[in-house]
Specification:
The complex is a heterodimer of chains A (296) and B (132).
Chain A: H1 5-87, H2 129-145, H3 159-170, H4 181-264, H5 270-288
Chain B: H1 4-15, H2 23-91, H3 94-109, H4 115-124
Classes of the chains: A mainly alpha (296), B mainly alpha (132).
Chain lengths: 296, 132
């Protein structure tokens, strides 16, 4: 006699396992979706910070350009002083030649942080082998437990007879004996495959969620660190702006002094000529002062 | 005649891609191990991030405070030298003009931005203490 409750119990267990697996898999998909949303939101914020950093960088470049314009303007005043001294027949007429034309400076380009886009998960769908394996194991176990409709132990059968007897046993016995027969047995076997497969898929999905969560948190941590680095670079730019302002103010004041001196100087008075030469030389040296240290 | 159990197993093996009765349990234990390992990794990531961000914040604050003071002192000194220059030019005082121009050039030719590298090296030392 077949034991019809055993396939039912197996099928029931498989259904429960399948439900559990399906719930876990669904939950995993939802968690991954949330992680992707969290990453995308954080990434958008990071891009805003990066844009702010780029603006700060561009402001600094613009400021350096203005400083260079001021240098060229002041250089004209130095040339004017040189012409004045030349007209006054001062011996040191080579003053102008001693003044090097200021070189334009550019801050170094910062490449910025780069975070690779998150890899989309595909592993959830990889599971399933364990479910089919379990079904195969059950199928083989039937051979040792079940009895064919003829009353012969399945384990003593072979070939197609053993296969048919096993499927019939899973179906609750042969049709002739009031059972579901091989057709139902085949369906039960299919059900036995699906349950454990889903359960394993659920486990696998939870593991995948944990790995993706780590990856997202690592990339968010990298973005946070990169933002702090950018804040520090912006702070350095503020310091460089102070340096630019210092040089600008110095050149402007010295240029204004020299311009006033040229406007009021007497070309026949040696004291005036000497003072102009002295201030013009100092202005030329101020024009040549580097904004950034050589190493930068 | 072949062993019936072997026959059934072979039949089942043709129906499924793998035959491992404990695959479910193996997957379950592996999943638990993965989840625990990933939790450890995340805790490590968070700790490293916190330390790094704190260090960068501290570096920024100290750097800004240091250079704020440094440039303010330089500005005051420059203002005094420009007053001296104005005085020298107005009174045709060569000594004052020379002193003023030497002072002005001495300040602006001394680039304080060189301190960036020194500053960063100091901040990297755990025993470094800065007095503001």
């Amino acid at each position: 006699m077949p034991l019809p409750f055993i396939p039912l119990i197996l099928l029931g267990g498989s259904v429960i396992a399948g439900i559990k697996g399906a719930v876990d898999t669904f939950s995993a998909v939802q968690q991954i979706t949330k992680l992707q949303e969290a990453y995308n939101k954080r990434r958008a914020e990071y891009e805003e910070r990066r844009a702010e950093y780029e603006k700060a960088h561009n402001r600094l470049v613009g400021r350096l350009q203005k400083l260079n314009d001021l240098r060229l303007h002041a250089y004209d005043t130095v040339k004017e002083a040189a012409e004045f001294l030349k007209r006054a027949r001062v011996k040191k007429r080579h003053l102008a030649e001693r003044i090097a034309r200021p070189r334009l400076e550019q801050p170094d380009n910062w490449q910025g942080a780069h975070v690779d886009p998150i890899e989309t998960f595909q592993a959830v769908l990889k599971a399933g082998g364990a479910g089919t394996a379990t079904a195969a194991t059950v199928y083989s176990t039937v051979g040792t437990l079940g009895v064919a409709s003829t009353g012969t132990a399945i384990s003593t059968l072979s070939g197609a007879a053993a296969t048919n007897a096993t499927l019939a046993w899973l179906g609750g016995g042969a049709l002739a004996a009031g059972g579901g027969g091989m057709a139902l047995g085949t369906a039960v076997l299919g059900g036995l495959v699906a349950g454990p497969a889903l359960l394993t898929a659920g486990f696998f999905a939870q593991g995948t969620v944990a790995q993706i969560k780590t990856k997202v948190e690592r990339q968010i941590a990298e973005m946070e660190a990169a933002e702090e680095e950018m804040q520090n670079r912006i702070a350095e730019y503020r310091v460089i702006q102070k340096r630019i302002k210092e040089i600008e103010t110095t050149i402007k004041q010295m240029n204004a002094t020299l311009t006033d001196m040229l406007a009021t100087a007497d070309p026949n008075r040696d004291q005036d000529l000497f003072e102009i030469a002295r201030v013009a030389k100092a202005l030329a040296e101020a024009i040549d002062v580097k904004t950034l240290p050589q190493a930068a | 005649m072949s062993n019936p159990a072997q026959h059934i197993i072979r039949y089942a093996a043709r129906q499924v891609p793998a035959l491992d009765a404990i695959a479910v349990i193996t997957t379950f234990t592996e999943t638990i191990q993965i989840i625990q390992a990933e939790e450890t990794k995340r805790a490590q990531i968070a700790a490293q991030r916190d330390v790094l961000i704190k260090a960068l914040e501290s570096e920024r604050q100290v750097m800004l405070a240091y250079f704020e003071q440094r440039f303010a002192e330089r500005r005051q000194a420059l203002d005094r030298f420009f007053h001296l220059l104005d005085y020298g030019v107005t009174h045709h005082d060569t000594a004052s003009i020379d002193a003023a121009l030497t002072g002005i050039l001495g300040i602006i030719q001394d680039n304080p931005l060189r301190d960036f590298e020194t500053f960063k090296k100091c901040m990297a030392r755990p025993d470094f203490v800065i007095e503001l």
